Amino acid sequence: MSFKSRAAIFKKLRYRLLLYLVVALALIMPLRTALEHHFLYFPATRHEATPASIGLVYEEVDFRATDGTQLAGWLIPGRDGAPVVLFCMGNAGNISHRLETLQLLHDLGVATFIFDYRGYGLSKGKASESGLYHDAAGAMRCLHERGWTADRVIIFGRSLGAAVGMETALRTKPAGLIIEAAFTSVAAMGRHHYPLLNALLGWMIDAKYDNLDKIGDLKNPVLLIHGRNDTICPPAMAEELYARAATRKQVYWIDGADHNNGLIAGGVAYREHLRKVIEEWTGEK
Length: 285
Description:
Strand order of the largest sheet: 2-3-6-4-7-8-9-10
Oligomer: single chain
Number of strands: 10
Number of helices: 9
Largest sheet: 8 strands, mixed
């Protein structure tokens, strides 16, 4: 076989391999997105109730994420001149499933802004790690436009919202950050809950939500809240996060609490600890 013939064959093989690669990528990318959404996001689009259902005055707020996505949230006023809590929810349901938290924060006298992530509730778009960061950044911008400066904002994130809240705190330097039922990273969660599946398919999930890598860069004070019986985000993860934090920090353990019932299991002591921390961080009495 002549040199030219061999060269022509190799050229055809290269083009064929390139075509196979393009086809493989075209098939894999939607699968990666589907896999990520299957494990990380559980949105509900229908609101089951509103703050009015529990007697709270509230304002429906339409605003945009920093990438332009249309979002929706609720603003529950506090006492005159009160600081505001920006609440970043977990990965399931929507804001209508957080009424107990809204009642708790209202009872503390602070204003509260809670919003649906993209793809949740009335918000447009589809959830992703970068997208949720844009959503929270847009919520902070909305609060600034309404007169709350960063030193009058407390960010409170629960579960997945802890990761969203931490990224937002790094970007905006609020008065303080509260993270409840936080995990160290998506990769660590995969290793903990699905070791074999994670070893095989973990590389296909783009989302990192790497709280352990970020927490050391926080400048504002941080409160970690965690249930002693949390089997979803084990207490060891809270211990790792606390050890890595380099700013003013404290951890508040809730005996008997699992991943989802810290507010209930914590009772009065939980509420009073939140009050004390918020007053300390904002100078409120």
